[in-house]
Structure formats: C-alpha cells, structure tokens
Write a structure and sequence with these properties.
alpha+beta; 6-stranded antiparallel beta sheet; 11 helices; 28 strands
Length: 526
Amino acid sequence: MFRSNNVTSRIFERQICTPAPGTSVHYARRFYENIVPSYTLYDVECPDHSFCKFTDDGQYLISFSRTHQELIVYRPKWLSFTCEKEDCDSHDLPSKAKRFDSFFTQLYCVSLASSNELICKDFFLYVENNQFGLFATATAQIHDAPAIGGAIQGVPSIEKITLHLLRMEDGVILDVKVFHNDFINLAHSLGVFLYDDLLAILSLRYQIIHILQIRDSGNLVNVRAIGAFCREDDELFLNANTQWQQFPVNHVENGQHQQFNPDNLFLSGIKQRLLSFIFRNLWNEETDRSMRVHCLKKKFYFHFQHYVDLIIWKVQFVDRHHILIKLGSVDGVVSRNTDQHPAFFAVYNIETTEIIAFHQNSAEELYFLFEQFCDHFHATSRNSLYMNLISSHSNNIHALEQLRCNKNKGTSSSQFVKKMLASLPFSSQSQSPSPYFDQSLFRYDEKLISATHRHRQSTDHPIKFISRRPPYYLKFKIKPGPEAGSTDSRTKRISSFLFHPTLPLALSIQQTLFMQPSVVNIHFRR
C-alpha cells in the first residue's frame, strides 16, 4: 500500500514496487485518491437536452432533445486554455472555458422517433466491443387495452415499440426491431438485457422471451423465442397433428403477434417446464408413498392455480446458456411497489429447455448465493474491463459490512431477504464503473449518490467523498444545483449524476418537475 498521499511519491513507488499477482489494476486505481474532480463550474451554459449517460468506455456522452425526437451524441474532451499570468491556479477560469462545449464536442444529431413516437430517455445499452448503441422509441401506452390474441389481462399495450441499433462512431442506423401492440418495460432498460452479443427482450403482454443476437455486421438476428414453445421445432411437431392446428405460436411475423385460440386450454411450454420441475422436486422429497401423496396435495395441488397464474416479470442472462426469470402475479406488473407482491425466481437452461432451480423471494438459500456471489448476478460482458470493477458486497469488505449492518438492524429476517432480492434480476448496465464509486477508495452517503443510474432527491448540501484510508481526509465534494443553493425551498428538485468511467469528470444535473431548464454543473480536476 502507498505510504504517501503525494502523487510524485506514488509514481516513484510504482516504479520500484511490484504489486501482488492479480492486483495490478486495483493497485493502479489507488491513484484516483489523488486525482479527483475537486473543482466545480456551476450552472454551465449548455444545450437544453436530456442527458442520459456516458458509455462504459467513456468515448461518448448520450443525450436526447427535449422533444424526445432526436439523439445527440458528444465526445468528451479535456478543458484547455491559456493563462498569461504568473500564478494561474489562483485565478478564475476564463469565461470561454466555463462553457459546455469546452468539455464536449458534438459528433452528430440523429432523428430516431417518428411523429407519434418518443425516445425512451431512460433506455440505452452499449455494445462495447463493436461500439454499437441500442435505443428505443415507442408510442403512448394504452392502459385499458383489451386482452386479445392471447395477451395477458391487465397488462398495458403499446401500439409500436422500435429498437434501433446504431453505429456510435457516425450515428448510422444499422438495424431496427419492431414490436406491435405489445408491452416491453423500457424504463431503465428493465425489459431488455444485454450480455455480450445476446439480447433478451421480454414481452410482458404476450409472455414471450425473445433471444436476439447482435452480429458484427450490425444485424439483429432472431435466435429463439421462449414462451408457448421452448424448442425451435415444438411448433412444427404440434402442428403436424390436426388437433393442434390452432395452438398459439410464439414468434412475431412482420411485427404482428400470431393470434392465439381463445378456446385453447393448454399451458405454455415454459409454464409446463416450471410445473414439472416443482412436481418432481416435491416427489423426490419423500420416499414413503403416503407421505409423498400428502406432500403433493399440500405443496403442489393446493397451490396449483397460483403457479398457473404466475407470469414473467423480468429476465436476465446469468451466462450464455442460462437466464434468471422473476415471476409473480399480474398485479405486480403494473404496481410501482412490487415488494408487496409474492414473487418467485427460476433459472432456465436455454439449450436443454429445463428449469434447473426455483425459489421464492424469501428463500434464505437464494439470499446466501446473492450475498456471496453478487457479481455473478450482474453478468457483465467478458470484454468490459471497467464494468468488472464495480463494488459489491461479494468483492468489497466495506459493502459487505454495510449489508450485514442493515440486516442486523432489520426487525424481520424474512422481510430483509425479500427487500434485498427485490433487486433481482439486475438491469443491464445499470451502474457506473467510475472509480469514485469504488468503496475500497472512497466513502460516501449512498442515500444521496451511488453507482446506480437513478434520479435522487436533491439536497442543498454538498455530497462528501472521504478517503477510506487513515487519516480519512475529505477528498472532494459534489454539489448539485446553483452555487448559492435553491431560492425556492417548496419546489421539489431531483438530481442525477453522470460520472466518466476513467477521467476525473462528472456532471450533476438538477431539475424540477415543471419542465424548467436544468441546472448543469461540471465537476473536474483543474
């Protein structure tokens, strides 16, 4: 460990010392204790855009127009200016240096949405190895849409959902994928999960998991659709018999779902797999025949209709061959607070089409796996170096201590387990890989700021980042909003924070709920 907080001393020590095997990246990241965004430009003059995030490699800053019709992409650059005075550090920056375009260069502006569509401002996924970006546009939700064609009653409908695959270098649209009269949860990318070159898209309305592959050529290729059918030839096999002719199909042709037969009483293929797994597990619990029958009556047949009524809420890849599926009631889909609804988790093998695990959201066994192997649930791309350095309670002792402290404070162990497992399955690319969120380097109030991309209740007090090493110095502060604070304390204000993944550069964006211009501050190392 470095003995000095001086950058020069650290560089000299790096030259003469060799880090332990496997720790060179973490050893180098300690330099960020010295190189921090300690200077702030308040209320910077900038375009009135909705800023989304930096890409995980830091090459691009994504933003959208206020009309949610256009995509605007910027390239981060470092501030440069000349100073004719002797002691430049003691003088204020020139007025030209206090502008947004001193830090960012606009690359292009692309119109994505049609007249009746809007860009989903919370949706963006980045394919780092190809530098592709996935964006979404959609029409307005229809909350009372009739459940026709096999749709789930109570789930809203969207007339048109379009996923756009762009080449980030020049903004060329490479391919699109359109869904008609469907519902995909686009907010914060909850309904779409990216793992390497594979996409899992959940149709909530029709209960279909669409598996797509992003080719190097920039094409979105259908790989499999999991729902009514599990294997690729299931539909062909069933349609070979005339009595199965009206069985619901599982794919989308020309953007339209095939019509389900309302008289069909058969369960979907994935539901059949789930019920079979539950039945076999309970069957194997008992060896005595009478006890086995009693167990099945009590734990399977009594709850049979509850299992049948379960619908898929959310999915994520665990690896290329397994997906984690969260199931619950229809009420939980449209509810803002899903913690109050019972939920279950299943692990599904895409290749063998088998359910290999099934747990309720209060299962201690699943919580133990979550606590010990949290990084495996994030399922980050193998090609992403920065995303694999995000702090979690399975790789950081400080995060683990905080988790166990919260657990000890809880009144009910079962409720705590449910609360923690409510975050599963994780959303894709939902956390910032910035080293300033590394909990082995800095301590900060996670109620005010964290690596998770979410809006926060704004505060007039600066957010402090304190060193984890003795003597626990205050390293830097991030203050959203005007320098003098807000003049109207009654107005509800929210803040978002965009940290560059490698540079000592961050944006704090404070906005009100009345569509007033945002207050953008730029925090950087001067």
